[in-house]
Write a structure and sequence with these properties.
Radius of gyration: 15 Å
Distance between the termini: 33 Å
Number of strands: 3
Strand order of the largest sheet: 1-3-2
CATH superfamily: HybD-like
Number of helices: 4
Length: 138
């Protein structure tokens, strides 16, 4: 949230909370990934909404599974723990499927507001989130 377009997932979750899809818990985890591990343990599926730098134009949306994303491994600090590294801590028989919707940021720098291209793409991002979750219901 403090790094402009890097907070697109937070903005999307806050909008989704206004009218959450049926059967969905929209949780804002941010960088406190370990604090959200209890949510992963009961989930059947997880849809991560985040900024994703993949070389496209600002506002482009990418969809992939967690398996498709390169895992840098455990970072030097728990403050930098990635979602993929945190999922290793889950001690359950059945791990939830983890899917990612990522949006290409324009600017990652100090600031609370999304840049205009990301702000304009946010409704589409939220709609894709709703469509993805709805497809899982059937």
């Amino acid at each position: 949230m403090l790094l402009q377009d890097d907070g697109v997932g937070v903005h999307a979750v806050r909008e989704l909370r206004k009218e959450p899809p049926p059967g969905v818990l929209a949780a804002e985890i941010g960088t406190a990934v370990l604090q959200g591990l209890h949510l992963y343990e009961w989930a059947d599926r997880i849809l991560v909404l985040d900024a994703m730098q993949a070389g496209g134009t600002a506002g482009m949306v990418y969809a992939c599974s967690a398996r498709d994303v390169a895992d840098p491994g455990i970072q030097a600090s728990l403050h930098e723990l990635s979602l993929l590294a945190a999922l290793r801590f889950i001690n359950v028989n059945k791990r939830p499927e983890v899917h990612i919707l990522g949006m290409e940021p324009q600017v990652i720098d100090f600031g609370l507001e999304l840049t205009p291209p990301i702000q304009n793409a946010l409704p589409h991002f939220i709609e894709l989130t709703r469509e993805t979750v709805e497809s899982w219901r059937f």
